[in-house]
Structure formats: structure tokens, C-alpha cells
Amino acid sequence: MKVHMVLMSVALTAVLLTMTRLADETPPTPALITSITSSAPPAGTPVEVPPAQAPPPPRVYASSSDLPDGPEFPVAGAGTFHVVPGSGPVVGTGPLRTYAVEVENGITVDEPAFAAFVDATLADPRGWTARGARSVQRVSGAASVRVRLTSQQTARHVCGFEIPVDVSCRDGNSVFLSAARWFRGAVAFLPDLDAYRAYMVNHEVGHAFGQGHQPCVAAGGPAPVMMQQTFSVSNDEIVRITNGVPQGAVIPRDGKVCTPNGWPYP
Fold first, then answer.
1. What is the 3-state secondary structure (H, E, C) of 77-103?
2. Main-chain dihedrals φ then ψ at residue 91, nearest 5 degrees
3. Is 220 part of a structural domain of the chain?
4. What is the pLDDT of residues 208-260, one digit of tens each?
5. pLDDT digit string (tens) for 113-171?
6. Contact 239/262 with Cβ under 8 angstroms?
7. 197 phi-psi bin (left φ>0, alpha ψ -120 to 50, beta other)
8. Considering its fold, how many domains does the chain have in total?
9. Cα radius of gyration (the chain)
10. Does residue 217 lie within any of the structural domains?
């Protein structure tokens, strides 16, 4: 009898333990499920994205002679130059002027691209060969004009920096194109860098061909390629920037403003 009662007690204990375990494993009630999920947005609800920040406004330049913002450029080089290999056919008619393309030693640039741009500019029908004035030909040896891509510091040394503006220049039969301007351009031409590069080549080679500086003559018309457009396309502003420093031309203070132009015969 006692054995029987003990067995019944053991069986009852096992039943109670099983019921307790099942109670612990009982799934949450619907109310509990609702409480857990109520903080999540319903499926398909659009997620609010914060608005993108507006880009900064374009820089307002204090002077049209300021060097525009832009990529890095060669600041210093060796002060010596090497020829970019290449030659071409005679372009145009009239007296022949040969030219070589050079890059300053110690600077890193795409030399074939620079040479190709110079070639295309000097061969353009709007350029110095128009109207039978002269012909040009690229050579790799002795040349009547040497077109040189020049670091900023070398250009400042050769061309001067009395007026604190980065410029290009012609010295003897060599044309020094400032890398600062080649990579950044000039305010008057923004945002068209290629148009300014054509102006650089034509203006400085124009000096090598005997051309002097000119003012804006027809207000609202294209500036003469020999106008100092790196400073400005406004006669008054050129006078203000140069502040009486001789520039090889008398620029009138007459209020005339031209449009930028890089070609001798646009």
C-alpha cells in the first residue's frame, strides 16, 4: 500500500513539472504581440529621407584677374625645357613660321595632349594663318617660335609679378604659357577652359609674330585676341589692374567692355 502511494506521488510530481514547463513555453498572447510590434511602421510606409544639402554658391571674384578655383597645377619646375617630339605639315599660305612645342623639366603633364592642343589652335582657320598672312609648321628641331608650358614659379620669374597676377608672356622667340592659367583659365572665360587656352596660345604666339596689345574697340563685340583678357575684357578694369604699369599699349578709360575671344579672326 505504501509503495502504491509513493508511486502515485512520484507520478503526480512529474505531471506538475510537465505542466510548469508547458506554461513557461506558452506563446505570447495577442496583446503582448501588439505591444512588441506597435513601435514599427506598417509595411509599405515610406521612410522619410532628410533633404540633401544645397551646393555652395559659386565664388564671387574680387577681380577678373583673380586665378579661378580649379585643379592642382605644376607650381615649380627645373627652369629648363625639353621638346615634345612631333612634327606636322605646312598649314596656310604666306611666309612660313616654324614652331616647336616644349614642356618644362620637372613638371608632370599630359605632354601629347598639350602639343595636340597647340597644333590644333595654330592650324585653326580662325587663327594666324587666315587670309594668307602666314603659314605655320610644327618641327622638333630649330624653330622660329618655341611654345613652352611653364610652371607657375618659372612663369612669374620670366614674365614678372610686379602686378600680382599670374600671366603668360613672350620672351625673345620663346612663348611661356603659365601652367597656373593652363589648368585654371581666367575669370572672363569661365567656365570654358578650352576657349581660354586657345586665347593663351594665340595671344602669346601673336606677340612672337610681331603683334602688340590692343584695347576693346567695339563695346559688346568680341575682344581683339591681343587684348589682355587675362586681366579683363573691360578697358577700365585693365587700367585699374595695371595701375599705370606700361603694358605696351595705351588702354583708354572709356567704359568699353568686350566679350571674351581667343581667335585672331573669329
1. CCCCEEECCCCCCCEECCCEEEEEEEE
2. -115, 125
3. no
4. 999 999 999 999 999 999 999 999 999 999 999 998 676 777 899 999 999 99
5. 999 999 999 999 999 999 999 999 999 999 999 999 999 999 999 999 999 999 999 99
6. no
7. alpha
8. 1
9. 38
10. no
